[in-house]
Task: inverse folding
């Protein structure tokens, strides 16, 4: 355990900033939909799905008095390493996708002559350095990033306020609206890897992580609704044709003497991406560290971070070149099953094993003692 | 003499009864240094000797305090009686009995006078120092408009009295210790025992005692030993040359370190936002102090980011600029042979060279250098078409801004070059990424258990009344103690 810990509010802000990255680069039109009321409702339902999904992991952590990585080691012993590996692979894939998305955005929107690999490598190096410093620094910096993010969104709101047209919000015309809402909500949930990050880092908080999760869901819901509303009302049907709808919005936002806000937003998105990758690295370390305790294996522990950095850099670089693989990865993640495995199946299985071995209450009591 | 033949362990060799033996050993240990004065005398039938360093003692004080009372005494029955007489009648504040050579030599080298009496295995040392030193003057780097104009000087004892004069209630404690294995420089910890967390004092003391340097000539030598991890461009130890600032800081639960021979004090723990606070903030009216403080924050960001951002936007993101400005920049840059990034680097390099030259030269010559720089190089470079005039304006604004927060000049200078390079090579992407890394780096600093970025993050709302704004004295009456900031390891 590190000496310093973070508060639940810091964790909420940190993961809120991480989650905001999805709004920048990933959009619902990937699944062939258009912006409208359905999506705004789907975000709310996705929040409920996420709340339900974390229950097994939450129960496991409560009953063992440990974080998810440590609980895997405690309830299952050495075989628990497989859960950690599974969780790490999930995080590595989602992080690679994050880095790819950023590099892809930068090459397409701002630096057409640059190589995506350059952005991949620099981002991973910067995030790796931040992760090596510890979670406190990242969490503290998140408050400042969050403030900048909110100011940025307010500026966009001001910049496009004159173009908002409520008529652009597509009404519910679907024949099976409930199925559509549930399908979209499930896709949103499937792409909500920060939920897993939240669960992973909850053990780093002093207390109140449960209460914090509700706040996290509420804050992300407000953000998603606001951004979706802006995109839908300003861009209208065009939004579903755009690669980066929010970015497109910033190119038409005019505030004071600034012609466009996209350069400012580019900076903001980079910092958000950097933070998200750094948090993912920390979470992976949390998962793997219990299986490489201090002492004889301390050298191996030091190699975790370089290994993660290399893996993400390679993963993101491959994704920039292989569109088939990229599509496959996105489809798998959107299916929601990877998140179900790491949040429900894995922790649920550990709960059962722990129960059979009589380790659940005992762990919590030991912790209390 | 028999008992004295056994050598004592190094560094703890004790004084002997034999006066001449003691004097020989003192001379030996000081390598027969020419400034060592040993003056054997016989008073009242007892042999004794004064040991002192030439030029470090006020002889009139010594005469009044010791020699005159001794002369009035008819005779002593033994050396011990003479010793006790001197100890009891010496009219000096600082009188100590010393039993070891090492301590004796250290005190004599500090300007004390030692009196050794034949037949006594101890010496009396008296603080009758009298060496020339610089008088108290106005602060040089923390100039203020209103308020007191006293700054620390070199002798630590005088600096201690300057603090004591300002805090008379007895709540301040001064604790002396020696640093430097060879120089044995006197360091003084100043803190308020009723306010400070004792764990903090203990840790500062431990770090100072563990300083492995042989010679400590300036408090700057100690600074790295008081800093923590990770490595950062920003100093985690505050410095001030003002005794009033030290008084205010130790009332907030900090520890000040004064070092003999150094005209400024070190302050720990130190917060990033303290770089933007100055004494005038508290003497001016709150609304004005708030505006000035906001100016300082803006200047800080301008001084590190403006040239880099200018290069990045003009090179990679020109669409962000208003059209009229963009055309002006394009027209100015059209005539220059270098890319913007090279231009920015050259002109900043020239500026730093001139600044350094102006700083080290005598003042009249320094002014001449400034004139040459501003008129000859600046004007000529633009006229010759080597540098565009918008760039000159950017550099001028940056240079002025960097002096608004002088405490941060060192990191600002380095960061400015880094951001110019990144802006020129990678545009706003590189600048944003570097800024994010820098932010995480300073957010991770937790020196002595206090987050460097507190009270901004982790946020302590109560303490924010003296960060972005400066609240009125009615609201600042109760100082915010540093250990109570959110995220502090010292918080109970």
Result:
């Amino acid at each position: 355990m590190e000496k310093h810990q973070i508060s639940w509010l810091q964790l909420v802000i940190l993961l809120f900033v991480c989650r905001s990255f999805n709004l920048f680069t990933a959009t619902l039109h990937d699944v062939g939909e258009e912006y409208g009321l359905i999506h705004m409702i789907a975000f709310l339902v996705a929040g409920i799905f996420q709340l339900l999904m974390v229950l097994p992991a939450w129960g496991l952590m409560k009953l063992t008095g440990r974080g998810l990585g440590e609980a895997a080691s405690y309830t299952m012993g050495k075989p628990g390493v497989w859960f950690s590996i599974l969780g790490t692979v999930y995080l590595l894939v989602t992080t690679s996708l994050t880095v790819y998305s950023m590099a892809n955005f930068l090459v397409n929107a701002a630096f057409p002559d640059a190589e995506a690999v350059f952005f991949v490598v620099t981002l991973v190096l910067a995030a790796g350095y931040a992760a090596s410093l510890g979670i406190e620094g990242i969490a503290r910096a998140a408050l400042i990033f969050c403030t900048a993010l909110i100011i940025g969104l307010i500026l966009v709101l001001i910049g496009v306020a004159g173009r908002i047209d409520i008529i652009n919000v597509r009404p519910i015309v679907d024949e099976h609206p409930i199925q559509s809402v549930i399908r979209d909500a499930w896709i949103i949930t499937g792409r909500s890897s920060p939920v897993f990050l939240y669960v992973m880092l909850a053990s780093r908080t002093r207390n109140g992580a449960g209460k914090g999760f509700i706040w996290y869901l509420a804050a992300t819901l407000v953000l998603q609704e606001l951004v979706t509303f802006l995109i839908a009302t300003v861009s209208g049907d065009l939004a579903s044709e755009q690669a980066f709808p929010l970015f497109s919005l910033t190119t038409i936002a005019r505030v004071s003497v600034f012609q466009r806000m996209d350069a400012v937003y580019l900076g903001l998105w980079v910092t958000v991406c950097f933070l998200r990758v750094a948090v993912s690295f920390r979470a992976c370390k949390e998962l793997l560290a219990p299986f490489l305790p201090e002492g004889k294996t301390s050298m191996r522990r030091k190699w975790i971070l370089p290994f993660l950095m290399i893996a993400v850099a390679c993963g993101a670089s491959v994704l920039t070149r292989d569109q088939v693989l990229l599509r496959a990865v996105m489809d798998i993640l959107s299916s929601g099953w990877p998140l179900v495995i790491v949040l429900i199946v894995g922790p649920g299985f550990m709960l059962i094993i722990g129960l059979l071995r009589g380790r659940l209450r005992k762990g919590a009591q030991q912790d209390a003692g | 003499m028999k008992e004295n033949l056994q050598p004592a362990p190094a560094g703890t060799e004790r004084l002997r009864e034999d006066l001449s033996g003691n004097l020989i050993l003192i001379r030996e240990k000081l390598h027969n240094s020419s400034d060592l004065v040993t003056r054997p005398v016989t008073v009242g039938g007892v042999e004794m000797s004064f040991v002192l360093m030439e030029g470090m003692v006020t002889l009139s004080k010594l005469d009044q305090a010791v020699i005159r009372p001794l002369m009035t005494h008819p005779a002593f029955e033994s050396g011990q009686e003479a010793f006790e007489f001197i100890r009891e009648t010496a009219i000096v504040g600082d009188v100590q009995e010393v039993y070891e050579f090492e301590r004796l030599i250290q005190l004599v080298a500090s300007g004390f006078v030692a009196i050794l009496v034949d037949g006594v295995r101890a010496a009396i040392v008296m603080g009758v120092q009298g060496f020339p030193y610089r008088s108290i003057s106005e602060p040089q780097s923390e100039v203020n408009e209103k308020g007191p104009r006293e700054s620390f000087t070199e002798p630590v004892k005088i600096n201690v009295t300057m603090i004591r004069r300002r805090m008379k209630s007895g709540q301040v404690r001064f604790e002396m210790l020696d640093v430097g294995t060879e120089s044995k420089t006197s360091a003084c910890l100043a803190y308020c025992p009723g306010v400070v967390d004792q764990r903090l004092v203990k840790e500062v003391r431990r770090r100072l005692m563990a300083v492995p340097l042989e010679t400590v000539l300036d408090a700057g030598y100690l600074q790295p030993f008081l800093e923590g991890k990770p490595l950062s461009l920003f100093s985690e130890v505050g410095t001030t040359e003002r005794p009033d600032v030290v008084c205010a800081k130790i009332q907030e639960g900090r520890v000040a370190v004064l070092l003999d021979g150094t005209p400024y004090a070190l302050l720990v723990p130190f917060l990033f936002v303290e770089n933007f606070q100055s004494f005038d903030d508290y003497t001016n009216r709150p609304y004005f102090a708030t505006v000035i403080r906001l100016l300082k924050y803006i200047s800080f960001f301008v001084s590190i980011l403006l040239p880099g951002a200018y290069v990045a936007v003009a090179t990679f993101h020109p669409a962000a600029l208003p059209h009229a400005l963009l055309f002006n920049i394009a027209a100015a840059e059209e005539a220059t042979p270098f890319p913007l990034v090279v231009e920015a680097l050259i002109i900043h390099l020239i500026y730093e060279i001139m600044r350094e030259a102006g700083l080290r030269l005598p003042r009249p010559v320094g002014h001449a250098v400034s004139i040459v720089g501003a008129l000859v190089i600046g004007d000529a470079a633009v006229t010759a078409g080597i540098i565009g005039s918008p760039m000159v304006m950017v550099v001028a604004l940056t240079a002025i801004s960097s002096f608004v927060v002088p405490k941060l000049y060192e990191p600002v200078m380095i960061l400015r070059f880094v951001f110019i390079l990144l802006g020129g090579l990678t545009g706003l992407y590189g600048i944003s990424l570097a800024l994010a890394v820098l932010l995480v780096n300073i957010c991770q600093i937790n020196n002595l258990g206090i987050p460097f970025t507190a009270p901004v993050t982790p946020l302590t709302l109560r303490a924010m009344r003296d960060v972005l704004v400066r609240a009125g004295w009615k609201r600042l009456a109760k100082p915010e103690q540093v250990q109570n900031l959110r995220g502090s390891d010292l918080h109970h």
Remarks:
- The longest strand of chain B covers residues 36-43.
- Residues 156-281 of chain B form one domain.
- Chain B touches chain A through 37 residues (CB under 8 Å).
- The radius of gyration of chain B is 29 Å.
